[in-house]
Amino acid sequence: MGKIIEYNSRLLTQLTPYWSTDPSSLLGSHIQAEFSQMRSWLQQLHCDTQTVLRKIQEIIENYIDFQRGRHVQGPELKDTQGVCEIFFQHLSDVDDQFEQLHINRMTTLMCILDNFPEYVINTWWTDVLRFMQELLKSTLIFEEQPPTIIRKDKKFHAKVRWLIGSKIKTFANIDQLTGIATILNNEMVKNVKEGVCSEQSVSKIQNGVVKFEINQNGEVSAKLRECKIMLINRNGSKDSDKKIHEKFAVVFRTRIVWNNTAIDIPLLSLPLCLATHVHQDENLLAMIMWDYAFAERDRLAFEVPDTVQWFQLAEILSRMWNNSIGSPLTDAHLKYLYHKIFFNANPADEADPGQFVTWDQIARANLPGQNFTFWSWFYGAMKLIEDKFKNYWNAGHIYGYISRNQARILLESQPAGTFLFRFSNSSNGKLAIEVRTSDDVLSYGPYKFKSISVMGERSLNNFIQDY
């Protein structure tokens, strides 16, 4: 693209003196051919700029998916910024060429000589200006997203970055650029995505007004530091469960003046939840997990599917376990979890990857005979291992995902004194011990292991020795 811009710029300079020439006198000459070439290059530039813009927007979408924890390779922002800066300069150069054509009244001559509709040329110019606006808006990103759960009066941080970098200097004084962050609910987020201009919010953010700054590497950013939500104005529903399970987003608004036009740019964070108590975290994390994993890119607000296939959920559960514990779940683990959800299936059957599973099955309906959900049970197991037994798990010393009956069958063929740890089916976040005695397999527990910590004085080894 850069070469075409350069060639076209030279050609434009060469052809400028002919703007007032009678078109009929140029017919069949090399000048007519050069005008035709210039028109062709402008058409190519229009096509190329649109293609490059879409590729940049796709890279940024991939970065957001990476922040969601999806299985995509996150782009290097340094490289992405370099591409965005070059592309912004290319768009500026193409805009200059269209403007020069217009000022020198060459557009009409070019179109007559090339038998081409003049309005199409003007449309290309309009498109280039629109592409520049889209680039300005889409390259403003959250480099560091706000926390997925924000508690009232608890400080949080986030970082906004503009990937066109120092090119902002071409139309604005970076030191005078500011932004303001507030909290929006579902309806307000929907309005933002539909282009409705509104200053509404459910909560202001303390320290939410910040200035942009540029560092020695040319990175332009605004850092939200020591921020707090002081008041949570939830929706008007009287249903306390709906209120607790609301999703929100931080919106970061900034305004620039470009091409003599004031442009308001609202940047939305990933969905988050607002909490008043720590005990709410478990259920709120389930909402975030489902949202980050299964929401469509082009959704209007916070819509998510109610149903997904088992293989999709299995991939997410395994990735979560890997992120927290340091190793993914095995096929045997996932088969056990499958039958935990689909408890009516034959335990001997393999997991059906295409089986549909609903949000209610995961996070709303209690497991049979229990007072907790599948998510609560899974999350409790994950937190127990993460907080106390990560090394033991990764060393293969905790079996975990096995039923009492399966453990009995496994141990019956082992010598006396053999034992294994499994997650309790009847309790949340506890381990049970299955022991092979001289004539039987006995079950003990379940145990919460409150006295054990990874770095504490007592370990699982001490517990076994005492036991």
Lay out the secondary structure:
Blueprint: H1 2-15, H2 30-68, H3 77-103, H4 107-113, H5 118-138, E1 140-144, E2 149-151, E3 156-162, E4 178-184, H6 186-193, E5 203-211, E6 213-214, E7 220-229, H7 240-244, E8 249-258, E9 261-268, E10 273-275, H8 281-294, E11 307-309, H9 310-325, H10 331-341, E12 356-358, H11 359-363, H12 374-394, H13 404-412, E13 419-423, E14 431-436, E15 441-447, H14 460-466
Parallel strand pairs: 2-10
Antiparallel strand pairs: 1-3, 3-7, 4-5, 4-8, 5-7, 6-7, 8-9, 11-12, 13-14, 14-15
Helix pairs in contact: 1-2, 1-3, 2-3, 2-5, 3-5
Task: Give a structural overview.
- There is one protein chain.
- The protein is α+β, with helices and mostly antiparallel strands and 467 residues long.
- The protein folds into three domains: 2-138; 141-277, Sandwich (Immunoglobulin-like); 307-466, Recoverin, domain 1.
- Helices cover 44% and strands 19% of the residues.
- The protein has 14 helices and 15 strands.
- It has helices at 2-15, 30-68, 77-103, 107-113, 118-138, 186-193, 240-244, 281-294, 310-325, 331-341, 359-363, 374-394, 404-412, 460-466; strands spanning 140-144, 149-151, 156-162, 178-184, 203-211, 213-214, 220-229, 249-258, 261-268, 273-275, 307-309, 356-358, 419-423, 431-436, 441-447.
- The strands form four sheets. Strands 1, 3, 4, 5, 6, 7, 8 and 9 form an eight-stranded antiparallel sheet that branches. It has a three-stranded antiparallel sheet with strand order 13-14-15. A two-stranded parallel ribbon has the order 2-10.
